[in-house]
Amino acid sequence: MTIEIKNKPIELELCYGMREGEVIHISEVKSGILQNCLCPKCGTLLIAKKGDIRKHHFAHYNYENCQGAQETALHLLAKDILYQEKCVCLPHLPGTPATNIKSFDQVSLEVRELGLVFDALGYADNEKLAIEIKVTHEIDERKRQIVINHGIQMIEIDLSDYLSSEKNRPEIVEAVINSAPRYWINPLPAIEQKIESIDMINKATIAGFKLASGYSRKNSCNFESNKIFVLQPVENKSSANYQVSACGGYELLQLDMVDQPKLIEKLSTFTFPVEATLTVETAFQRNKCLPVVTDVNLI
Ligand SMILES: [Zn+2]
After folding, report:
1. Alpha carbon of 41 to ligand 1 centroid (Å)
2. How far is the CA of 48 from the centre of ligand 1 (A)?
3. Rounded distance, CA 232 to CA 242, Å?
4. Positions of CATH 3.40.960 in the chain
5. Which of 298, 263, 261, 299 is nearest to 281 (CA)?
6. Between 20 and 30 A from 215 (CA), which of 4, 47, 165, 283?
7. For 141-194, how does the pLDDT look when each residue is reduced to its tens digit (9 = 90+)?
8. 13 CA distance to ligand 1 centroid (A)?
């Protein structure tokens, strides 16, 4: 007896369909053949299976060779959410609020620029943020390099954990805007924000420092990481879509520092935390302008 199913990729159950150009969830339809509900991937007719035994899902009515429909649907849904909601929570960077919601005047989808296709571009004042949705594939190295070289601010939102879930639209809205993991691909303006805040806290409380080195398998080279940690008062920064309800104390700002024996020697004599003045310069590293601490002096 041969088991045919063995070599067939396991297809995820489809919990989204397309109706009049919109992604709909299985919970929004009645059971049975649906006149105007199509597969987001192949565009053929779907049937809603809402029985008592298996979890509710869509199946192709008369077509079997469609793969990746759930992935396509989730990707489409996430982009539509960005288009409708016009805001996104930015990935956290030291020195920025823990919840940092960015609102846009306009969001465009599938934008072709620089020979690339961006999932979404959000525009606010004179700023532009590129947003990539990862369902199964993260952005490739070519795209990353072009984005960095052209100074385009970009984040990636990782929805891979939601692929096999059967979350409805409100749950995916929450994931896309707030709770799904997200990373900076190129955090240019945030870095500028960091430099500004450093200028203001020339006198600072240094909480500690750390020198580390290692070998990066990804880039096939040795790397060094020299960090200095500075306490910064938590600020009450509220905006139209983001409210700080209470705050107090300090948050930790992490800065690069130069690997200079004199500076390391000086830091080694401190008893932390310590009040000091910082000399901060900007250095061009990894195609970005970054603040680097070049000296510290006790007050
Ligand atoms: Zn299909």
Report:
1. 5
2. 13
3. 20
4. 72-186
5. 263
6. 283
7. 899 989 988 888 999 999 999 998 889 999 999 999 999 999 888 876 544 555
8. 11
Distances (CA, A) of 198 to 131, 231, 255: 28, 11, 10
CA of 85 relative to ligand 1 center, distance in Å:
27
Please name the residue ranges forming H helices in the chain: 69-85, 141-149, 169-174, 188-200, 261-268
Structure tokens at 7: 């070599």
Residue 275 tokens, joined: 């009040």
Answer whether 251's CB lies under 8 Å from 227's CB. no
Dihedrals phi, psi of 291, to nearest 5 degrees = -75, 135
For residue 253, which of 210, 206, 202 has the smallest C-alpha distance?
206
Would you call 58 exposed, middle or buried from its count of C-beta atoms within 10 A (0-12, 13-18, 19+)?
buried
Q: How far apart are CA 160 and CA 196, in angstroms?
A: 35
Helices (H) and strands (E) in the chain, counts: 5, 17
For 72-186, CATH number out of 1.10.260, 3.30.1400, 2.40.10, 3.40.960 equals: 3.40.960
Distance in angstroms (rounded) separating the CA atoms of residues 136 and 131: 15
